[in-house]
## 1
Amino acid sequence: MDPVPGKSGISRKSFVNWLLGTSLGATLAAALYPVFRFVIPPEVAEAPVNRVLAAKLSELPLNAGKVFRFGSKPGIVVRTATGEVRAFSAVCTHLNCTVQYRPDFQHVWCACHNGHYDLQGKNLSGPPPRPLEVYKVDIAGDDVYVTKGA
Amino acid sequence: MRLLDTLWKALDERLELAPLVEFATHKEVPQHRHSWAYYFGGLTLFFFAVQVATGILLLLYYRPTAEAAFESVQFIVTRVPFGWLVRSVHSWSANLMILAAFVHMFSVYLLGSYAKPRELTWWSGFLLLGLAMGFGFSGYLLPWNELSFFATRIGTDMTSKVPLAGPWLLTFLRGGEEVTGATLTRFFGFHVAVLPMLSAGLLGLHLGLIQRQGMHVPGHLAEEARTRKPLRFLPNFVLREGVVWLFGLAVLAALAAFFPWELGNKADPFASAPAGIKPEWYFLFMFEALKLIPATVLGIEGELIGLGAFAVGGLVWFLVPVLDRASAHGRRSRLFLALGWGVLAYLVSFTVLSFLGAFQ
Amino acid sequence: MTPRRPGPACHPGNRGPRSTNDPRAAVVRLGTLAIVAVALGAAVAAAGPLAASVVGPPGKSAADRCTACHRELDEARLQAPALAVGNDTHHAQGVTCAGCHGGDPTSDEPEVAMDPKKGFLGKLEPTQVPAMCGSCHSDASFMLRYAPNIPTDQLAQYRTSKHGQALAKGDVKVAVCSSCHGAHGVLPPSDARSPVYPSRIVETCGACHGDATLMARYGIKGDELAEYKKSVHYAALTQKNDLSAPTCNDCHGSHGATPPGISSVSNVCGTCHLTQRERFDESPHKEAFAAIEQPACEACHSNHAVLSPSDAWIGVGQGQVCGSCHAAGDAGAAAAESVAAALARMHERLVAAEARVKKAERAGMLMEEAQVKLEEAHQGVVLAQVEIHSVDPARVETQAKEVLAAAGVADGLAAAAEGEIRFRRTGLFVSLAVIALAMVALILKIRRMERA
């Protein structure tokens, strides 16, 4: 098909070779780039399990509570007036509001409809129909770990 | 370039590689109007390679326990850079591999390529397809989501219908009475150790046989193949195969990016089965046919008859190089050709009808 | 825990009259005398004191001859009670048939066992029942031995109830103890099979109150049961199995059943819905409602058919609750309008943000942060709905602002996720182009090679 063999033929050949090399190289790069990115783990280096570092003991005074995150759901860790550390789901069993610790009542309280829970997570009064889910608490040095479903 | 040459010389000196290259360059691929069929085995191999690569990558983050499996896959697709792509490619490539393998198998069957002396190639290919489906079945459970959990429950339950060995098989597959975390651990073992090992051996055999015996030319195309200039395996055929592979890669990338494989909800063994539980598409022909069989036929459990029929059908398919006696003499048997088209029509129609919801 | 007095009474084998210095025996005797006096008048003399053979020591199942004999009877009416007492909590605690029916439970001879001279009463008249049950249940020291945790004011309460008052006037159609608790086979209310178990109370009250013809005699509509079944409370009770959800007795009282008066409605609702009541009490509605003798909560929420409240109720238009007092143009209508507008705005933004987040999530994006914000927004909506009871548009508006802010953040995160999806698609197009180019180059190469 080439009307003038020779110079143009050679340049076309080298063009084809260049194109082939470049495009195959680019394809390889396109395939390898995600791989190189994939093998480096993200900031949160572990797949979330049922355990989370909820609070520092030193940041949790007596008769106080702290809301932490369990994935996208809130949990609450409570340090009672006597120094015990307990943790519950912070999702109110009535309409899913986030509960809080009320130092004046010395128990857990939901602001939405004035629901009260005791320090075992049991619903005391107000509309909540069920107790809060109780989580397991492990204290390692200053770290308060909370485990779900244990 | 000089470095490569030196390296090549050093290797050749020690391993005598030149005859292999010699063999590859002299190997020829016949040309005729159905020589397109020769590319599908290679395409299947390409997808298999993708599976190995992406599978190894997924292993870096995956955790095979009931508590963490779903979360780890979720972690891969949401947090790991390009994790969504790797997982999606792994899922899509698995399906494309099985599809390519089916095309490969039917083209081989319909062109009569299973005939003597290529029985071993047919048999190793048949077993490889079985392994591929085993990969699919075991891999489906690994994300530990609702759909996979219940599909596995139904799928493994079928084995309990096998006479005599049924209960043993069920316990073997499930690692207990029920589908639990124990099942997940064992399916993971099958998926990443047992099946790959068997596949590697069989694949080596399959490829070795093809290289040894060369491509088969169907009798009715022999004349055409004689008149047309055959392709040299290296580089002509290999480069063409390269184009096919690039096309496969493009399809894979497009599917993975436009239709990311969904993760669904985490499996809850105590929840009731969600509506519309279906196995992977390549099991649909079996799944739907079993549903059509009445509960009991002549006092025997319908499902047992169905499974028996599939077992017999599979055996006939497997033994076709022996059963089709004419093929050994280069003749085409009309009966076996009709059987091939019939099976193809059944598979395609049932799979398509199932997708269209005809069996609801 | 109250220390129990050692029980001097009910020594096995002691069938004679108890010593009069035992105060409990005296009370029981007095109680028994009282019932019989109310019931039979002249037959009082026949009634003897409760003997050990009639009421055994706690925790020991009653042994009597009555059930042995009645079980064998052919007449179902006479046989049924004997079969039913197997589950009966009283029987299990040692109360024999004679504990209520009188007679001698130790005798095999029908003439002796059911001798009116031995206090046999036969089938109790409705008018006899409350006092009969009360003879033990109102006796705090007696009940302490059997069931220390149950109250002893049932009879006193019953007498104040509509049922009790009507019975006192001789109306025997009204509910007595056995109408609700059953007569034979009485189970504790905590037993799910008991007709007074929370989830079964509706049907138990409904046996009479669902009968419009019967209720017409008392000027009661009789549709209360059907209305209640439409309510959120009934749904919570039966669908969520929330046993704390109010059923008939939670508002009307159990033994002292009576309709709550106009002034007490908000007290009744407020026992659970504290915050709403608090807001209502702070609102100008409190005094206004009292002035026109309008019940508080009921005015908007109805009494039995307490429906799931809707923001669409707010306004003076057709089917909207404010319209029953306010008319378009007055200050109340204006306030309602601005509250409704704030709620609508909130919902609109929240629904849009939710849809957008959901869509990104389906596309495989991590939307945890956005979900947290959406939760926050939902909580804000709930709080805004509480503020409605203050009828102060400014307070609702304050809440609405927080909801809008949270929904806005969620929406922004979803937008960022959409951007990421677009970026992935762009990346894909680039790599597809690269692959296509490689294919073209390879084909060109093959053609060149084969032409040569």
## 2
Amino acid sequence: MATLALARALNLGLRRALESDPRVVIMGEDVGKLGGVFRVTDGLQRDFGEDRVMDTPLAESGIVGTAIGMALRGLRPICEIQFDGFVFPAYDQIVNQLAKLHYRSRGTLTVPLVIRIPFGGGIGAVEHHSESPEALFAHIPGLKVVACGNAADAYTMIQQAVACDDPVIFFEPKRRYWERAEVDTDAPLDQAFPLTAARVVREGRDVTLLAYGPSVKLALDAAAAAAEEGREIEVIDVRSLSPLDFHTISSSVSRTGRCVVVHEAPVFLGFGAELAARITESCFYRLEAPVLRVGGFSIPYPPSRLEEHYLPDVDKILDAVDRTFSY
Amino acid sequence: MTVDSLHHTVAPADAGPADPALVQLLTPEGQRREHPNFPLLLDDAAIRDLYRDLVLLRRFDTEATALQRQGELGIWAQVLGQEAAQIGSARALRPTDMAFPTYREHGVAWCRGVPPEKILELFRGINFGGWNPLEFRLAPYTIVIGAHTLHAVGYAMALQREPHNDDAVIVYFGDGAASEGDVNEAFVFAASYNAPVVFFLQNNQWAISVPESRQSRIPLYQRAKGFGFPGVRVDGNDVLACLAVTDAALQHVRSGQGPFLIEAFTYRMGAHTTSDDPTRYRLADELEKWKLRDPIERVKAYLSRSGLADAEFFASVDVEAEALADRIRSACVSMPDPDPLAMFDHVYADGSPMLDAERRSYAEYLASFGEA
């Protein structure tokens, strides 16, 4: 056991991946000497060399496109996209090529490639550095889309993503990079909690809160506050957006009869819309209230002095929880 | 240097066959030429084989066009006019080299040994390419222009890491693709990592309806210089020159000298696809001009005039071409539609319980009609 910041846990997970498989390479902008703008790859080029940890030209489509070619020849590349808003130059490669090559080739080609994307706001950044584009990827068949919410998951999930034979879009909650948690760095990977499973991170019987990435901590904080008022909230860290572990979610909502979804992305056509629809389809007779969503407004991510108004917070979550009891 | 003088230092983009930089080993009239940098190392039998490739490819292309007109294919992208560029370059490859095609590279697929029927499966709508890319060393056809040039560079970067392996990569794209960001990023990455990749640009003059002059104000092969690697313009209708130049380019990239750009100056004699109507945007005169530079006629003229082949040989190739056309026609019309549930196959390598549930549900839905 070790107490690690989330960024450090990712760093250790990446180190393990590089150690355990010579086919693994890391590539991206500033991932080498600098160790990444968030230091997630700190020290890895020093220890594994420039062939394993590659500073690339500044071109996101080029990074993902060449990584696809490397994967076709048997390597297992991990691409770092520096910030969420910078992934779009690579979107064509991800959507039209990465997601479809296995299908196009009738299973003869596999593209085991991980794209790491720091996502979400709350760090007072300039434009394009605080976005939550996860639904744009979860909508694409052929991609696996996951988000870690704490250091322990970060350490395990990044290694599982690298071991996966499918392309994985790996979202990292950038404002949680410095938050520390206990990480069992000795636990064997093959016995770890599955990459694509959702996890109940707090049990409760009154209402189910669904969150992922940076919002999991908010949901837990909201649950702790609600407990003081005698309301027991169950919190599920969705973890895998695609494929979705809906069984864990529907089991919970069938018990509680109430559900609130939290994410930073705009509510309109956000991931919460899919969750709400599925829950309604499968738990209709168990629901005491409609599924409510807490998330961003239908505006571009605002300037940082306004982001506290845009982002979900404990009060907004508790307000939605209260509303589920008003039906 | 003034802006005006800069303009005068570059050749007009449509210099074409008159360009002194154009490498040509066989004139449109069938005369052999020598080039100091690009010797032709072929025996007579090999030249006859190239002729056979060209004729069979054209017959395949013609039959596929007819199959589309008769409703057996959804669409067909004709290779008519570009046979020499594709046969010449692909015949320079080793079996273990890797080729990345766009959607018109039927001649490359032919040389890689892909059965033509497998290509028809794509255009009939059976699948997105029926061959195993690893078996034939030919990546799937790529429809999105230029995207695969990056895959080729990445593949070459991976080859670079393999000790004692001097296999190379060739990637095919066109004059339109040369404007895509991905192609330019592929040039940057290939140069930066000194990747063993040959960029084979077939300049067929037209990106659907848009002429090459809209894509570039300098001859496309000259762009390589700006990225820091060599570029050569070859007569794309001259199969011998295409083979010799590609052979030299492959030697260059195999020996660790980094990427190489070949611009094969050719012409799309057909429509962009069977859905296109070139009469709306180009003059018939232009086509007539290029017919005089036909890639097959000049080889036939050379073989006949130099006594390397007789009438019997040409007749036997024609017979073989007709047999090929019969074979692919009967294969095409008898292709069954795939099983509906096959559309759920191969979305994920590691599987997806969510998708499995969708498949089960649709299977039950289909079965419900049977029970009624």
## 3
Amino acid sequence: MRRIIDVSIITGALLGLGGVLLVYLGNPANSGICVSCFIENIAGALQLHKNIRMSYLRPELIGFVLGSTLMATKTRRFRVRGGSAPVIRFFMGFFLIVGCTVFIGCPIKMFLRLSAGDLTAIAATVGLVFGVWVGVRYIKGGFALPRDEELPRINGFVIPLFTFLLLVFLFLNPSFIKAGQKGPAAWHAPLPISLLIGLAIGAFAQKSGLCITGGVRNFLLVRERTLLNGVITAFLVALIFSILLGQFRWGMNAQPASHLSHGWTFLAMALVGFVSILIDGCPFRQLIKAGQGDVDAGVTTLGMLVGGGLVYVWVLGSTSAGPTFQGKIAVLIGMIFAAVVAMAFRKKKGGSQSLKLKATQL
Amino acid sequence: MLFPLLKGQGYHGEQIVDWLDKLSIAAIAGLTLITVGMLANQEMITRRHDNAEGVAKGGEDSYALQMEMDKKIYEEVVSLKEQGHYPEAMAKLETIIKKYPENSLSYVYLAQLYLEQGELRETIHNYRRAVEMEADYVDERTPLFIGNEIKKLVTEGREKFSREKALKPKDKEVRKALKDVYYLQSRLAGGCE
């Protein structure tokens, strides 16, 4: 037990330190690590959208997946399982990115923004915790997606191999892969450092099972603090290094890549929290699970990638001016979709009996 | 690590390597080599000779072309501005905005004209419209960058409008002006957007 706690805290520390260090070395402000922003970058690099300012194959995400694969293979925890509501998981992945893009950041970036003094992330934190709490209520109320099952091993290698292909593209730089020379895409830490940090975080996250929403969920559900300690460590380490490296700017206004529509920030991150509980993991955790052979998480990752493209094509993402109308509508649709799924997969006590009764009445 | 996947390992874990497996492995290896070779040949050579220079030069060329076109469009506005005929310059700009609604430079000139007339609120508002349309104005890696000029103004604007807000907390115009200031400051701060 003690060892698991240590790994979780080490992962948290790596996440916090990596997030701040990558900004210091060239990543966009407050975006040292952001799964949703980086997924959008990768979608742009693959030409799933045409915003060249957001097109770059981020090595950090490649590192997360491959680090997880290497660690899982080494520790014999590469287990190929899947087949649990794949289409639903795909759309959940899409809505995860919608929620993140309306807030402008994933749960990791949320605490990185908070640790850099961005007070607009408070509404996001409250929203995320609220979303997790709603998800936990559904779990307590009998929600569970169908059980996954063991699949032939080749299934588990598809996402890691696809990620490895992206790594090859990153080094070969073929012309069909776009890399923006301006905007956030042009802001990046040196490739080897980004990749190494990604690999290290991916490997430790696989070992510890660290998940931002998972930490909150475990605490709310059974008062278990292992993962939450990792999350808190990540925040504290990021806070300390933000101050030390001069990245700390306290305030609500004029923060990089942020807006003042707190209500929509709350709702967007509530959507992320809720969806993350339903599919068992935040966007970061989905990548790590996809790397360790979880085919369902791989499907979610593909949903996130498509989402990363469509949020630009459909102009769902927020700017400093606030969320767009389309973005607000997409968050609401996401909430409806998640609630319908949560209700549809509830196994209520006596449910089968009452259904039988209704059937005989018909 | 991957080899067991190619050896016909079925659901029950039996290791069967028959002639079809051997043929498949040979074909996969051959196809992989051909693909990698073709990619390397096409991409490495093309990139070295055309792309690497082309992308960078292409970017600069498009900026130069746009600037040349803009010079012609705004020639009269610049001339009127230099002579101090601000109302005439603004009238000309209104015509240009109707004709070229997507050209963000109109709002930069509009902002500069308002600044010449001491209208800080309108200056900042028009810079905001320009930045909303063209993010390169606050991107120091592009030739369009005017971030330092905007930064100076928003710093001045923040102090001025914060004071005004303290005096008139319910004034909608002051709050709108402060929102413009915060927007521009957020864009100047960078981040993933």
## 4
Amino acid sequence: MTLVYGIVWIVMAAFAVSAVAALVWAIQHGQMERFASAARSIFDEEEPVGRPTDAFPTSGLERRS
Amino acid sequence: MSELMPSAAEPQNEPPTRAEIDRSCRGPLLVFIASAVFWLVIGSLWAILAAVKMHTPGLLTSWEPLTFGRVRPVHLNMTIYGWASMSGIATLLWLQARLARTRLPLPNLLIAGGVVWNLALVAGLVEISLGHGTSVEWIEIPLFWALVFASVFAVVMASSLTMFARRKVAHVYVSQWYLFGAVLWFPFLYLMANTLIHTGLTRGVTAAATNWWFAHNVLGLWLTPIGLATIYYLIPKVIGAPIHSYHLSLLGFWSLALFYNWAGTHHLIGGPLPAWLVTVGIVGSLMMFVPVITVGINHHMTMVGHFRRLKDSPTLRFIVFSGMSYTAVSLQGSLTSLRSVNEVNHFTHYTIAHAHLGVYSFFSMAMFGALYYLLPRLTGREWASARLIKLHFWASAGGLALYWGPLTIGGWLQGLRMNNPDVPFLEIMTDTLPWLWGRTAAGTLMTLGHVVFAWLVVTMLRGSGGARPASFAAATSPIGEVKQ
């Protein structure tokens, strides 16, 4: 039982430490800087800003009928 | 433009295109998605049965597995661990592959994981139906099968960390942070809660506190991060505009990470817990105003100027509905955690309405939106019918409104009257009947939407919608002029 208690406390401590470690890592590795370019990091030449990527289908059963 | 960074493992390689990444996800994700849709439909049937039994308790009571005490947890486990978790894992893996600009690793293990997850869920549901459930809400499935789920979490975690290690993009986008919250924290919570409760380490009050700390975190550290990661990726992607404020997005994530996992004990207001423990939960719940308001403002401001696209994009409809619901359900949840409010709504149908606003209106609608976006990209095929997608949306959105509104009002009235010792209990119960009939009607409407969605998924897998336009980006450029 003591062993299980120990494991529970260790895992919970690791849980908290992982959050703090992630925050420290983010700050040290420049993840909290250059927000304008960060927001655009999901866009590129293949799918640039300004191009929508989703629409209702125009083919399919309705067109056939 | 993306800031590409050299990878230690593949210094010479160009990052794969989105189409290549999507293709690499196909096998494993289709296993998870097809299973999720199956559980959605079956889970809805159990939901209707449970709803009907609330106003017609004599229905199907001669066979124990169909009695209310078993039907209701079977519905919950089918929808949470079947539909929500399996669609959530699929979306999480796809988002991470795209954000890291890398192919999905461990595809065969993930396929096996999807199969094992289904088998464990079937076994768990059979156990509950036979009366072997644990009676602990949200972890009714016995410990052995919970450990099997945990092993699948380990595979998902390994795949997720491998993608992060191989990432070709220097910046860690906000969605990725949310996904880490889900994939790195929740499995441990799941394992810990099961261990603490099922091994006898906690009993009575401490077991209840552990139970609700965990149950609220299924929303807080599993469904919410996946849902928000999806919204933060898909709104900008669909409309082709970056999010309004990246500052706010990061503030939203870190404040959620700080506050959400304190909130669970607000479920036990009025219970025999130390007052400070409940107060901690209330403070955590009220502090959730910070991430919720930042996320709400950010999503709204990103959409400003683009609302007309709701007409043209199936994904955007579901995702924006989901984002608005997140704000609504979270603000409602924070206010509900106040003792003065909770003394009315506790133990009433109001709480059930609130739970569905969270898991259905926020999370499930985000998953519908994500699946409408990613399935054509996984399969290279188009959806079979725009009309049916719209029918699905309006059945789900209308069903939810019909569900939440009446149950919230009916539940509140029920609470007010239960606090009045002059009103006989039986009279209060009888007076809730019209609201409960409303719930059955609403659930039926939502189920209709799910059947339509399942039909669309099946026809897509069979290829009835035809091939997706070769150059979809070009095909979508006149998005406002698409004729239906």
